[in-house]
Structure formats: C-alpha cells, structure tokens
Amino acid sequence: MKKKFDGGSTPNTLLGLLTLCPMSGYDMRAMIDRSIGHFWSESYGQIYPSLKRLAAEGLVEKKTERKQGRPDRNVFSLTPAGRQRLSEWLSTPVKEVETPRNELLLRLFFGQHVSADVNRQHVTAFIAANEGALKHYSAVEKQLRREEANDPQLPYWLMTLSFGRHRSEAFVRWGRETLRKLDELERSRGRGSKAAQKAKSE
Amino acid sequence: MKKKFDGGSTPNTLLGLLTLCPMSGYDMRAMIDRSIGHFWSESYGQIYPSLKRLAAEGLVEKKTERKQGRPDRNVFSLTPAGRQRLSEWLSTPVKEVETPRNELLLRLFFGQHVSADVNRQHVTAFIAANEGALKHYSAVEKQLRREEANDPQLPYWLMTLSFGRHRSEAFVRWGRETLRKLDELERSRGRGSKAAQKAKSE
DNA sequence: GGGTGCATGTAATGGGTTACATGATTCT
DNA sequence: AGAATCATGTAACCCATTACATGCACCC
Question: pLDDT digit string (tens) for A155-167?
Fold first, then answer.
C-alpha cells in the first residue's frame, strides 16, 4: 500500500499556489520566484510533469485557453479534493533536513592550509551576500505592506520574510566575529611561528 | 577544455580529510560524521568512487593493509599533487547556494489554510530541534577544547561550530517571535470572524 | 534582423542516498 | 543466537536542474 508518484513537495507547492488564483505552469514559475523565491524554487522540468499527475489524480482541473496569436494556456485550478490534499499535507510534520551542506564552512574547516587572506575573502563575500539579502528582504517587506495590506495571508508571508531577516542578521554577526578571529589568529600565528623558529634555532 | 569528472566537492572533502591523517574510505565516513557532521555528509556511494578517481589522478596514494581475520583495508594518503589540488580548491570562491528549500517556511506561507495549532506545532518542533542542536554544539565545543587543545586547526573548527550556534540561536529567536505572532493572529482572527459573522447576519 | 516574452513540454545529465551483496569477528 | 563493527563496493533509484525543441508576436 505504498503511494507511488509522491514526488516530494513540488505537487504540494503547486496546490498551495493555486489557492491564490488559477494559473498555468508558466505562471507558477514566475509566481514562485516572486512570492517564495527566498526559500523555494521550482523548474519547468518539475512543474509540468507534476501538473499532469495532479490532474490525473483529480486534485486540479485543467482548462485550455486558446488565444489568437499567443500559445495556448493550460490554466489549472484547485478542486475540492485538491484543497483537501493541501490541508492534509500542511498538517504533516516537517521532515527534518538531514544536514544542508555548507561549502563555506567546509573551506573554513580546512582553513589552516591556506593563507588568512583567502579565508577572509570567503567570509567577506558571505557577509556581503547576506547584507544584500537583508536589503532585499526590507524592500520586499515594504512592497508587501503597501500592495497586499488587506490580504489575510500577509501575516504568514511576513513570517517567512522575518525568518530570512533573522538568519541573515545572524550570519552577518557571525561573519564579523569570524573576521576578528581570523585577524587574531594571523597575529598570533605570526608570533607563534617566530617563537617556533627561535626555539628551533636554539 | 572542460574538466569532466569534477564530481562536486566530495573529492575535495576527501583530500581535506586526508590532511588529518591517512585513512580508509570506511574511516572517512566515520570521521566526517564526527568532525564536520553538523554541516556536511558523505555516503559510501560517493566516497568509494571518488577515491578511485582521486587515485587515478595521482592525488592520493592507496596502500592495502591485509590483516588476518579482518577485511582488507585500503588506506589512502595525500600526495604532494593532492595537497596542491586541495589548496587550489580552498582558494576558489564559494559557489553561492541558489535557494535552499525550506519546508517549514513553505507550510507557514500557506498557513492560512490550516488551524493556528498546526502552525504552532511546526514552529514548536523547529524550536525544539534548534535547542537540541545548541546543546549538541556546546557539548562538542567542550570536548574539542579538552581533547584537541593543542591542535593548530582548533580555531577553524571552532569557527564552524560558532556558525551553527549563531544560526540556531537566531532560529530559536525567530521561532519564539513567530509563536507570539501566531497567537496574536488567532486572537484577532477570532475577533475578525466574529465581526464578519455579525456583519453577515445583519 | 534579433532579442525578449509568452507558453509547453521532454531528454539528458548530475549529484546524491539507499539498498544490496559479501563475510569474518567480537560483543551481549 | 543475534546484533554490531569492520570493510568494500555496485546498482537502483530519486529528485532536481539544464538544455533542447518549437513557434508566434512585439519591440527596438
């Protein structure tokens, strides 16, 4: 009694999107980028096959709009069964992420084998990226509060945004702290190696 | 002039590990879990093929130890070329992670469609997981400071641990803040829906 | 004429985990 | 007796991105 064709959370994401309004696969991609792009992404290679399966299971309904001059649009909307499935999924516990791999930390872990400067550059770039993200989050937040002020979903959207803010702020703090430590380390390493040389020569 | 067989960062990770001491593929897995397990993981399915390729490229050297009663051990050690390759890789810029998918945020984004309780449970579990992680980090840190006090690589290891601490602390703060928001939301939603009902019935 | 936007879809490829196959030894 | 540790490796599978194929319309 296994359910084949689960396909992870992509289908559920699409069901969620369709609560906002009926749309096509093409729209979905754009919508995802604009709304949940800071913590989620989907590619056409996932979206189109998923939609086909969702339609086969009766969770979404497809209507083809034909327009002159433009390609056909397959517009999907949520069925009651689809809405049901969505709220079931929303209630399932979040499967804990194993260990998201972190290339920055991997390099830093072996940081002894390169110059302090190399390590500093990695951390500096990381800080810059997160400062950029922070700016982006503020901009999005302002825009949301202006344009979606009356949407009952706004508070939830802001919570996800706040997550990004907390995370990036922490990352920037860690980055600065780490830069200080790297500086310190270089200074004491300098002293250390001099001392070691001296000890050797004696 | 493309370099085929890059294989991502797994081979580089293995090179890094071999700077600590020569070891077998089997050892590597265990070592990874103990040392960088909080931000990295590798499976045998990745390790063994990577080692084969690294040996073919002359970046590591393989020596087979035969012991009575035990299976053979293929012990690998770093060659000068391997050490060179490692420091080259350590100097390459970290490729920015696209957007790590976050299932918790995905559920929260669509939180409007389920009860406040469901959302609260997700967040509560998330807080608990991060508090657990924080305890783990402290334990590891204590152990490192005790057992590896003289290792010159210790400061780098502590930096990666500190990253986890900063992150989990931020996540816990966000979680608590979000729980408060959810409570607030439920209260105002209660009032709102009562008001809406009243308005409807009039 | 060429890029961009609209629109759908498939195939190839990549990176990774899990399961499987094998088999002795040691601990409980 | 049965589980855990030691030890290596392959095959199957999963999920996801990227590239490709197609083609019209609009703008510069």
Answer: 999 999 999 999 9
Q: In chain B, which residues from 6 to 65 place their CB closer than 7 Å to nucleic acid strand C?
A: 6-10, 41-46
Model-level pTM greater than 0.85? Answer: yes
Count Cα atoms within 13 angstroms, Cβ side, for A74: 11
**CB neighbours of residue A19 within 10 Å:** 15
> For residue B131, with 0-12 CB atoms within 10 Å meaning exposed, 13-18 middle and 19 or more buried, which class applies?
middle
Q: What's residue B72's pLDDT?
A: 84
Q: How far apart are CA A39 and CA A160, in angstroms?
A: 8
Residue recorded with tokens 């300098």: A190
Which residues are CB-contacts of A137 (< 8 A; sequence separation ≥ 6)?
A: A38, A161, A164, A165, A168
Quickly list DSSP for B185-200: HHHHHHHHHHHHHHHH
Q: Tell me which DSSP letter residue B112 carries.
A: G
- Measured in degrees and rounded to the nearest 5, phi and psi for residue B64 equal -95, 120
- In order, the DSSP letters of B33-53 are HHHTTTT----HHHHHHHHHH
pLDDT at residue B188, as a whole number: 86
Identify the residue whose Cα has the smallest distance to the C1' of C9: A48
Question: How large is the average pLDDT for residues A38-49?
Answer: 96
- Does residue A139 register a pLDDT over 60? yes
Bases of chain D within 7 A of a CB of the protein = 6-12, 14-20, 23-26
Q: How far is CA B165 from the centre of its chain?
A: 13
